[in-house]
Amino acid sequence: MIYLKEAVLQDRKKIYNWLYFSDFSSFLNELQSSSQIPSPPKFKEYYEDFFFESSSPEKGQGYIILINEDEEDEIGFISYTSFHLMNGIAELDIWLKSLNYTGKGYGTSALKNLSEKLFNEGFHTLIIRPCAKNIRAVNSYKKAGFVESVFEPEKYYKKEYIDEYAPGDC
Fold it and tell me: If residue 50 lies in a helix (H) or strand (E), which one and from where to where?
């Protein structure tokens, strides 16, 4: 069973390391057009304090993924953001701390858990924008109920954020 625990500020460094300095990060960097690793201060700009403080759920929140309720079994990070999107829409992001945790349904379960939570909180549309080359992720997202579609930024993003966020990561 998968559990989500609200991330706290002290988690930011290990989450950064999971994303950029693990066997999982090597896999992701092969898929993305730019494999340049941001500095910790730049990562902090991307993942602002509100992801780790539960202070602004209307902007977003991050969660540590656990494979049981024992907090020592942390396997990844999942988050949502909504500050840059139209009302009722959230964008999800997820990564695991090691390739050892892929292919076991953990990511799919975490996505289902967070999706249910967000729908219960009043969000009506959830988007996730993987690199199309990341077949594992795309398949996981489909299992979690996401549907591939042509992305039309103007349907989701607030006008002032389209130029910054519409291009995506790949």
Answer: helix 50-53
